[in-house]
Design brief:
mainly alpha, about 170 residues, globular
Length: about 170
Protein backbone atom coordinates (compact mmCIF):
# COMPACT_ATOMS: atom_id res chain seq x y z
CA UNK A 1 0.00 0.00 0.00
CA UNK A 2 1.25 3.43 -0.88
CA UNK A 3 1.87 5.60 2.14
CA UNK A 4 2.42 9.33 2.03
CA UNK A 5 5.38 9.26 4.39
CA UNK A 6 7.07 6.53 2.32
CA UNK A 7 6.53 8.27 -1.02
CA UNK A 8 8.13 11.61 -0.17
CA UNK A 9 11.88 11.87 -0.51
CA UNK A 10 13.63 14.38 1.73
CA UNK A 11 15.73 17.01 -0.01
CA UNK A 12 18.54 18.60 1.97
CA UNK A 13 19.71 22.05 0.93
CA UNK A 14 22.93 23.56 2.15
CA UNK A 15 22.63 27.08 3.51
CA UNK A 16 23.97 29.75 1.20
CA UNK A 17 27.08 31.68 2.19
CA UNK A 18 24.94 34.82 2.55
CA UNK A 19 22.63 33.05 4.98
CA UNK A 20 25.59 31.63 6.91
CA UNK A 21 27.09 35.11 7.25
CA UNK A 22 23.79 36.48 8.56
CA UNK A 23 22.87 33.61 10.86
CA UNK A 24 26.30 32.30 11.66
CA UNK A 25 27.38 28.71 11.95
CA UNK A 26 27.59 26.53 14.97
CA UNK A 27 25.47 26.25 18.06
CA UNK A 28 22.72 28.57 19.21
CA UNK A 29 23.24 30.18 22.60
CA UNK A 30 21.05 28.16 25.05
CA UNK A 31 19.99 31.39 26.77
CA UNK A 32 18.70 32.82 23.47
CA UNK A 33 16.92 29.54 22.74
CA UNK A 34 15.16 29.65 26.13
CA UNK A 35 14.13 33.26 25.52
CA UNK A 36 12.65 32.33 22.14
CA UNK A 37 10.80 29.35 23.63
CA UNK A 38 9.38 31.58 26.37
CA UNK A 39 8.10 34.09 23.81
CA UNK A 40 6.42 31.30 21.85
CA UNK A 41 4.87 29.76 24.98
CA UNK A 42 3.57 33.08 26.30
CA UNK A 43 2.26 34.35 22.97
CA UNK A 44 -1.35 35.56 23.08
CA UNK A 45 -1.91 36.30 19.39
CA UNK A 46 -5.36 35.23 18.17
CA UNK A 47 -4.53 32.73 15.42
CA UNK A 48 -8.08 32.39 14.09
CA UNK A 49 -8.23 35.61 11.98
CA UNK A 50 -4.77 34.88 10.55
CA UNK A 51 -5.75 31.31 9.68
CA UNK A 52 -9.02 32.47 8.11
CA UNK A 53 -7.03 34.79 5.83
CA UNK A 54 -4.92 31.83 4.69
CA UNK A 55 -8.09 29.81 4.12
CA UNK A 56 -9.50 32.63 1.96
CA UNK A 57 -6.34 32.45 -0.16
CA UNK A 58 -6.77 28.69 -0.40
CA UNK A 59 -10.44 28.98 -1.41
CA UNK A 60 -9.54 31.49 -4.13
CA UNK A 61 -6.77 29.23 -5.44
CA UNK A 62 -9.07 26.20 -5.42
CA UNK A 63 -11.75 28.07 -7.40
CA UNK A 64 -9.17 29.19 -9.97
CA UNK A 65 -7.78 25.66 -10.29
CA UNK A 66 -11.26 24.21 -10.72
CA UNK A 67 -12.13 26.84 -13.37
CA UNK A 68 -8.88 26.19 -15.26
CA UNK A 69 -8.72 22.40 -14.85
CA UNK A 70 -5.85 22.75 -12.36
CA UNK A 71 -3.07 22.02 -14.79
CA UNK A 72 -0.51 24.75 -14.22
CA UNK A 73 2.43 24.74 -11.84
CA UNK A 74 1.36 28.24 -10.78
CA UNK A 75 -2.04 26.95 -9.67
CA UNK A 76 -0.38 24.13 -7.75
CA UNK A 77 1.85 26.70 -6.03
CA UNK A 78 -1.08 29.00 -5.19
CA UNK A 79 -2.87 26.08 -3.51
CA UNK A 80 0.24 24.88 -1.72
CA UNK A 81 1.37 28.25 -0.33
CA UNK A 82 -1.49 28.95 2.13
CA UNK A 83 -1.32 25.35 3.33
CA UNK A 84 2.41 25.83 4.00
CA UNK A 85 1.61 28.96 6.01
CA UNK A 86 -1.01 27.09 8.05
CA UNK A 87 1.40 24.23 8.67
CA UNK A 88 4.19 26.53 9.82
CA UNK A 89 2.11 28.83 12.03
CA UNK A 90 -0.48 26.55 13.61
CA UNK A 91 1.73 25.08 16.31
CA UNK A 92 3.38 28.42 17.11
CA UNK A 93 -0.05 29.86 17.89
CA UNK A 94 -1.23 26.81 19.87
CA UNK A 95 -3.14 25.08 17.05
CA UNK A 96 -0.97 22.01 16.39
CA UNK A 97 -3.96 20.15 14.93
CA UNK A 98 -4.09 22.74 12.13
CA UNK A 99 -0.36 22.22 11.53
CA UNK A 100 -0.67 18.43 11.55
CA UNK A 101 -3.61 18.36 9.13
CA UNK A 102 -1.89 20.88 6.88
CA UNK A 103 1.23 18.73 6.93
CA UNK A 104 -0.77 15.70 5.77
CA UNK A 105 -2.41 17.69 2.96
CA UNK A 106 0.82 19.39 1.95
CA UNK A 107 2.65 16.06 1.76
CA UNK A 108 -0.22 14.68 -0.32
CA UNK A 109 -0.03 17.63 -2.73
CA UNK A 110 3.72 17.16 -3.06
CA UNK A 111 3.18 13.56 -4.18
CA UNK A 112 0.47 14.30 -6.74
CA UNK A 113 1.33 15.33 -10.25
CA UNK A 114 -1.98 16.90 -11.26
CA UNK A 115 -4.78 18.85 -9.67
CA UNK A 116 -7.64 16.71 -10.94
CA UNK A 117 -11.17 16.83 -9.49
CA UNK A 118 -10.36 14.19 -6.84
CA UNK A 119 -7.25 16.03 -5.62
CA UNK A 120 -9.16 19.31 -5.49
CA UNK A 121 -11.98 17.61 -3.56
CA UNK A 122 -9.47 16.32 -0.99
CA UNK A 123 -7.95 19.78 -0.57
CA UNK A 124 -11.45 21.28 -0.29
CA UNK A 125 -12.24 18.76 2.45
CA UNK A 126 -9.05 19.88 4.23
CA UNK A 127 -10.13 23.51 3.93
CA UNK A 128 -13.61 22.76 5.30
CA UNK A 129 -12.14 20.73 8.15
CA UNK A 130 -9.90 23.63 9.16
CA UNK A 131 -12.87 26.01 9.04
CA UNK A 132 -14.69 23.72 11.50
CA UNK A 133 -11.66 23.55 13.81
CA UNK A 134 -11.30 27.34 13.80
CA UNK A 135 -15.04 27.91 14.31
CA UNK A 136 -14.87 25.72 17.41
CA UNK A 137 -11.57 27.35 18.46
CA UNK A 138 -10.21 23.83 18.87
CA UNK A 139 -6.69 24.77 19.95
CA UNK A 140 -4.26 22.10 21.03
CA UNK A 141 -4.15 18.66 19.46
CA UNK A 142 -7.93 18.19 19.43
CA UNK A 143 -7.78 15.14 21.70
CA UNK A 144 -9.66 12.08 20.45
CA UNK A 145 -11.44 14.10 17.74
CA UNK A 146 -8.13 15.48 16.52
CA UNK A 147 -6.59 12.01 16.28
CA UNK A 148 -9.62 10.79 14.32
CA UNK A 149 -9.42 13.79 11.96
CA UNK A 150 -5.72 13.22 11.26
CA UNK A 151 -6.24 9.49 10.78
CA UNK A 152 -9.11 10.01 8.33
CA UNK A 153 -7.30 12.75 6.38
CA UNK A 154 -4.24 10.53 5.98
CA UNK A 155 -6.48 7.62 5.03
CA UNK A 156 -8.25 9.63 2.31
CA UNK A 157 -4.91 10.77 0.87
CA UNK A 158 -3.47 7.26 0.98
CA UNK A 159 -6.55 5.76 -0.71
CA UNK A 160 -6.19 8.27 -3.53
CA UNK A 161 -2.48 7.51 -3.90
CA UNK A 162 -3.11 3.76 -3.86
CA UNK A 163 -5.84 4.09 -6.49
CA UNK A 164 -3.60 6.21 -8.70
CA UNK A 165 -0.24 4.53 -8.07
CA UNK A 166 1.64 4.01 -11.29
CA UNK A 167 -0.41 6.70 -13.00
CA UNK A 168 0.10 10.43 -13.16
CA UNK A 169 -1.41 10.77 -9.64
Amino acid sequence: MSNISEDVKVKIYNASKVLQRKAGTGKIDPKKLKEAEKIIEENTVNFVPMALDYLKELEKALRAAKDNNGESAEQHHKITLPIMHLKSTGTVFKYPLVSDLSDITLTFLETTKTLNDDVLAIVMAHEQLLHAILAEEMSGDGGTKGKAMKKEMASVCNRYLKKHSGSNA
